[in-house]
Amino acid sequence: MNRYFVFSIFAFFTIFLSCSSSSDPKPPTQVTLSLPANNENCNSGTSISNTQSSVEFSWNEGSGVTTYSLNIKNLQTNAEIIRSGITSNSTSVDLNKGFAYEWYVTSVSEDYPDDQPTSNKWRFYLKNDGEQNSAPFPAELINPKSGEVIELTTGVFEMQWSGTDPDGDDLTYTLYVDKIDGKQETPQDFNNILSTSKQVQLDSDSIYYWRVKSHDSNGNSTYSQIRSFRIE
Predict the structure, then answer these.
(1) Domains of the chain, first to last
(2) pLDDT digits over 24-68, tens only?
(3) How far apart are alpha carbons 105 and 116 in whole angstroms?
């Protein structure tokens, strides 16, 4: 067997293996969101009635992706809209005006049906017609987590949350913490909180409910969702 023949066989198998490897399907990748912009007023919507706008959603193309699934959540009502089987990296959805929304995109692959990475979650506010200043986004409750069981050594716990405003307005907060429903009258020093945390005296062997009301400098306000936790 001459050297040229051996070299030809080696080269053939090298190319064959290289091509086979490069054609193997890869798991889908997480996408990066583009529009509507995060934590801002939505400027990519087209008014279609007094109550609704058609909002364009877009994101970068992921690799190894067969289709995309778009999930949109109304942060006031918790109503969700899911659009599956999207084959491009953009789509339009009709939404109600005057609400804040959260959205994310899931990458789906026919070759990896159990591997479906999701993008980061973004939020935006869809203004009403003639609305000059938007309400704050509902505060995100950070600490304690929903359903968390807490063991206190001093009887004091630091409640923590985060808040943003689509117009960039300064925010103050009202903290509600009680054993009934998170809606009871709150102590005076739980109003006009300038920071995003508050030390709270809590009783042992009790279940608490809490929420935060965000106020902007233009008189707008928004409540967060109500969450519960337990003190041992």
Answers:
(1) 33-126 (2.60.40.10), 140-231 (2.60.40.10)
(2) 889 999 999 999 999 999 987 899 999 999 999 999 999 999 999
(3) 10
Residue of 129 and 22 predicted with greater confidence: 129
Task: Check: CB of residue 50 under 8 Å from CB of residue 58.
Answer: no
Looking at residue 5, its amino acid is: F
Are residues 91 and 82 in contact, defined by beta-carbon separation less than 8 angstroms? no
Q: What pLDDT is attached to residue 12?
A: 52
Per-residue model confidence as pLDDT tens digits over 160-176? 999 999 999 999 999 99
Residue type, 97: K
Average pLDDT along the chain: 91
pLDDT score for 21: 47
